[in-house]
Structures are given as C-alpha cells and as structure tokens.
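Two proteins follow. First one:
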Amino acid sequence: MNDGNMTTNSVEAEYANIANRNAWPLVYQKIGRECQNYTYTCIEAKKPQNKPLNRYRDVNPYDHSRIILTRCERDYINANLVKMERANRKYILTQGPLAFTVSHFWLMVWEQHSRAILMLNKIIEKNEIKCHWYWPHGIGAEHKMALTDVQLTVEQLSEEDCSYYSTRVFRIQDMESGESREVIQFHYTTWPDFGVPSSPGAFLQYLTRVRASGALEPDVGPAIVHCSAGIGRSGTFCLVDSCLVIIEKEGEQSVNIQEILLEMRKDRMGLIQTPDQLRFSYQAVIEGAKRLDPNWTEEPKMEESIYSTVAETEEEAPPPPPPRGESLARPPARPLPAIPASTSLGNLACEFREESSDEGPGTPPPADSSQSSDDQQASSADDEDDEPPPSVPESGETSETQRPDLRRRKNRELADRVSAMKRRARNAEKWHNLKRSLYKPLTITFGIIIAGILVYSYVKH
C-alpha cells in the first residue's frame, strides 16, 4: 500500500505529513477501499438461527477464521482468530457478550485455553448497555456462576483497581472433569466509545501490564480481546501490540502500519473504526518504539481521569452513528481533534482548530417491544462513537459555589438512569432464563400429546 518499507523515522515523517494535511480521513478511506476487494464470506453469521447471536447486524465473523465451539448446542459465536505471523501473535477478537451468549463466551475461553480477557469497554456507555455483565458480581464461592448448559462454573478470586483499568482473576472449572484454570481479566475502564485513550503513554502502560502476565505469548491460548463490537478499540490494541513486537524482533526498518492493518482485516472485518483510532495507533507505535531504546527514561505516570469527568457531566446521549459499513467509506464532516500529546512524541502532535464528530446522526431500526435491551442492541447498527465534550455554561454567570451543586445533581440523575438500565438488564436476563427453563418441558409435553393423538387415531381405525 505504501512504497517500500518504512523506518521508524519514516513512520514519524508519514505521521507528520498526514497530520499537517489533515488527511487522516483520506488515509482511512483508502484502507477501506482496499478491504472492499476481499472476498471472504460470512455465511454462518447470516443463518437465521445465528443472527440473534450477533450484537450488531453489520459486524459478522468471517467463515474462514471464526471460532467454532465444540461443546455447545450451536457451534457459532461472533468471534474470529486474528493471526499476525510476523509478530508470532494470535488474538481472538469478539463482541461483548449478550445476555444469552455469556455461557458461549466462557466456553470459548475454556476451549481455546486463553489465559487472559482484555475488556476495553464499560458495561454502560452513552446510557446504553454495550456489553452484558458476564462475570460474577462478587468475590468468593458464594457468588460463583454456574453455566449448566456448557457444564462450566466461574468464580472470581480477586480484584485490583489500577486507576484507569482494573484486573480480576477468575477460576473456570469444568463440571464434568473437575479440571480448573485461572484466567485474568484486564478491564480498561476509561477508553471512550468510538474514541481513543487520553494518551499513548497511559495505553502503553496498560499494554506492558498485559504483556507481563504472559497472556500474549505463543505458548498459551490466544488472548480474548473485546469491546462492544470487537473491531474498533479491539483492533487498535492488536495493531499497536503487533507493530511493536515486529519492531522489537526485526528492527526499526520493518514496520508498515497500514499494511499490517490490512493483513489483520483479512481475519476480522472493520478493525480500527475511525481515522482518530488510526492516528492514535501511529502515535502509540512511535512512542512505544522510543521506549525500546535502552536510554529511554520513563515519563511521569499519566492518568486518564478526564474521561470519567466527561461521563459524570454528560447530560444526554448524542444521536446514534450510522451503520458501520458507511463509517468505513466516509470521512468525517469536520477535522479531527488533536490527541493529547505525550512528552516523548515531541512535535509530532498537531493542533487542530475544530473538534469533530466522527459520525453524523443515523436512524436506528425500530425495535420489537418484546425484545430485551440486549436483543435490541443486537438489531441496531451503531458501534462505538466519540465521548461528547463536557458541557460548558454559555455565560460566565455560574458561580463557583453553584458548580458543585450542579455536578452533584447531574451525577444523581446519571446514577438513576444507570440503575434503571441495570434493572432492565436483570429483568431481561430473568426472562431469558425463564424461557430456557420452560422450553424443554413444554416441548416434551407437546410431543407426548401429539404421540398420544397419533396412537389413539391408529388404534381407533
């Protein structure tokens, strides 16, 4: 896609050139056009029995790389094995579980011998459920989850809060054989929808922690990487990690970021969802390569509390973005905002005068009132969109004493909305469990009745 291999310096030059021309949307669009030549199929994902298992109708796993479940009523799950041979890396990219695919998710973790789950989203974002809560709600055996349909139990052993991400350790046990394994979840809690982390440095600290666990090594099962759809934030993580491994193995003259992204998109569609995420990937690769220098000195620790502040002051959700297929081919309407610079990036970060909305408003399809909130999400076409900026008073008349009261009121309103959504999610899960529990006895009863009618008719005649 680019002429020749690029050195790290040429990556920096390419980055500066694209940024100065504000050409990230054009570069991103060019990648999208290249992917239109792919001829991979998604036949299994579009079968009627599998359609409800997809969170988004336009994010489907390719048939040639999809994960196949072996100990389940259906072998389908919306997940792909993404391989980058040059980096000796394998990742499983998947959607955030739905209420009725939680057991499928844990079965995949078990059957693929994965050591870690990289969760890059929050449960609720923009007042919408983006992922079902799929792990135990507390630590200890009393909170253990029993997934009887796949014969597994999941128990949470510990939890650690690391400021902008959390880690949790789970024990998965096979109810048939008694075998058990431990899996660690790295939950990045401040990466905004359809956006990027606050700085490359903070992201690289998270990546370093994941690598230190050994979860990305070739001698263990592929790490499970997911956000809401499993393509935007998940693709960004895998692209940066693979590029840095290649630089470390083959030297600074070996990386072509766009070619590596195109290679990864052969295994799962739509990786990297916005020009902003592509730009952030360049920044993280450039800074990560600098950190490989033995003379590099660590900068002060970078926090990401800015996004939690945005979430607390958010008044209302923005309009949903259009279908993901359109986002792959259409540039944003306005220039992208600059990503907060990190000190080791020097003059690479370019300032732009306007903020942008990566996606214009779209119209979601009407949802059946009998569907649960997760079902409605499965039929929607939205994915990850930018966090809105915090609201600013139009005049300077708001006093310092009024602001804390206003913030507390907004926090209470947001907490009430979140609590209501959680209640709806729990009710939906109870309804699905009830339907599953009644299905088999009702089927048997109707079968007996029909058989009795047939026997009676035969005897009578």
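Second one, unrelated to the first:
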Amino acid sequence: MDNLYVIKGQIQQVYAKYSKFIDKGVQFILALAVFYMINHDLGFMSLLSNPLITVGLAVICAFLPMIVTVLAAAVLILVQMAAVSLGIMAVTAVVFVIMFVFYVRFSPKTAVVILLMPLAFMFHIPYVIPVAFGLVGTPASVVPVICGTVVYYMIDYVKTSASALESGGAEGMISQVMTYLQQVFQNREMIVMILAFVIVLFLVYQIRRMSVSHAWKSASAAGAVAGIVIVAAGSAVLDVKVSYPELILGNVAAVIVGLILELLFFAVDYSRTESVQYEDDEYYYYVKAVPKIVVAAPEKTVKRINRRAENQETEIINTDEIRRKSAESAGAKEEGEKKPNKTGSSVRSRSPRKKESRITGNMDQLLLTRSLQKELHLDEEERND
C-alpha cells in the first residue's frame, strides 16, 4: 500500500506542475469520445461523420469551457437527427432547451455528467457514474445523471428505428413524433435505470458522509448491491429484459472506481483515529479525528567512488641509491657532530654500530614513506597543488 501512496503523491506532483496541459488533454479525449459515439450511432450525415471533422471539432472544444463541449454535442445530435426526421429533431431540441434552461446554465461544471452517462452506457458500465458522483459530488448530481440517461435512450431509439423513420416521410411526421415520445419517455427500462441511479447516488452520498470507519468503501459496496437489487427487482416487476452479467460486472466496476476515488481523494489511516472532546460557553464538542495518510517518497542517495586509474605509472625505487644517499647524509651529519676534547683531539659522539643502525633505520623509514605516498596518491595531490 505504501507504494500506491507514493505513486499517488508523484501523480499529484505531476498534475500540479502540468495541470493546464493535463486538463486540456482530458477535455480533448472526452470530447473526441463523445463526438465519435454520436457519429457512430447516428451517422446519418456522412459529412459530419468524417473522422477529420470529429477530431477537428474535439480540438476546438478542448480550448473552450466544458459547457461548449456539451452544447456542441447537442447540436451534433440535432443535425444527425434532422437527416432522419425533422419532427424528431424538433422534439429533441425542445428537450435540450428544457435541460439547458432549468439546469445546465445554473450548474455548468456538472454538465459534464450529461456527457459521461451516454459514454458509460456505450461501455456497458452506467452504474459507475452514480457511485462515483455519490462519492465526490452532491445530491444535485442526480439531475445531470437523469438528463444523461434520457439523452442516451433518445439516441438509442433513433439508432434502432432509423429505417422505419426514414420510410415514413413527411406525411407520417406526427405519428413519428408520438411514437418517439411514447417509446422514449414511457420506456420501462429507462424508468428502472433512472430509479436505480437516483437511489444509488443518494445512498452512496449518505453513507460516505457518516462518521464510521471505511465509510467510502462501505458506500461503494452498498451502492453496487443496491443497484443490482433494484434493477433485478424492477426487471421482474415491469417485465424488462436485463443482461445480468452486464449488471454484475458493471457494479463490480463501480466498486473498483470507488476504491480508486478513495485512494485519490480520501486516503486516511483509521488505525490512528482519535476522539476529542472540548467545550466553550455554549456547546460541548465531540470530534472524531482521522489522520490522512502521507507517505514521503524515498530519497535516493548516490555515492560516487573514484576508481583507481588503470594507466597509473609505476615508479621503480633503486634501494642501493637510497642507501648510498642515506649514508652520505649520515656521514655529513656525523662530521658536524664531532666535539673537541681538552687535548685538542676530536672524539666521535656515536659508535660505528649506532651509525650503521641509524642509517638502516633512515632507509627503511624512507622506503615506507615512499610506499605509503604511492598507495594513498599523496604525491599526485602535491603535484596538483
């Protein structure tokens, strides 16, 4: 786990340094995925379905606020639907205007949920969105979740009924509009999904705000279980066809995403929880303090060891020459140490044996000194100085 927290800290440092570029990159990828999904499911106008148009539109939206991406996606849907039926395009435009007037213009930052819901349906993991925004969002996130679900089912109906809508012509426009409204807004599968998403989002939000240990993990697990139970019960009561493998795998993915979000936004150490009590003039306070997990990245210390030079020159010491020089220096010193006596003669201060011993000692000391200088490279340092 420590390695995960270290990686988290490194990711935070990278994001803090390159946040502008990362935000624009994520916005570009999201816009590209949304526009590709729309052109893939509603590719009735070949000009707009061109990959170059899709990429160019995503690049433009990447440098503009997120609300522009939402509006561009809405316009792209309307233009693609206009190639099938003008009546359906008009009804869809009215739905988009209602969404914008009553919600999007008041909460432009959460409008991205409207884009994420159809993408989640396309990847068969729509249960991830209510669990994720129940953890990191507010109860107001339920509105864009509902709007995104409605948008997905409108696109899905037009995709599956395109051939029937094109063959109807202008005469059957009223019947097409009525059928469109019934098939979309009276769709029992959509009603079950919206009911499950709303309950899951509120349940996850309430549990993760409780002062219990592992609240985020409990909230994610409870949301996944609630999603499975509600969708399964709704499919049995309303006779809705549901893919149970997708239902289970989608909720497992929701739990995994919840654990990732907890690691990123709510990493705490419950083993060091403290309960604090204090008071003032009006109240008694009972506070539960849970410390955050902070793991410092290990510091790497690099030690540089100087290798011995391979091409180092070897000096040959002539021991005979050193002995001769030592003897000469000792003899000169001995001459200076002769002392005159009372009769005028001079007497040597030391015996010949002592002289020979002193010469040998000086020679051995000199050899040892030169050898140590070569081993410790002291002679090279003196030359450099």
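SUMMARY FIELD: Strands lie at 274-279, 284-289, 339-340, 346-347. The longest helix spans residues 352-376.
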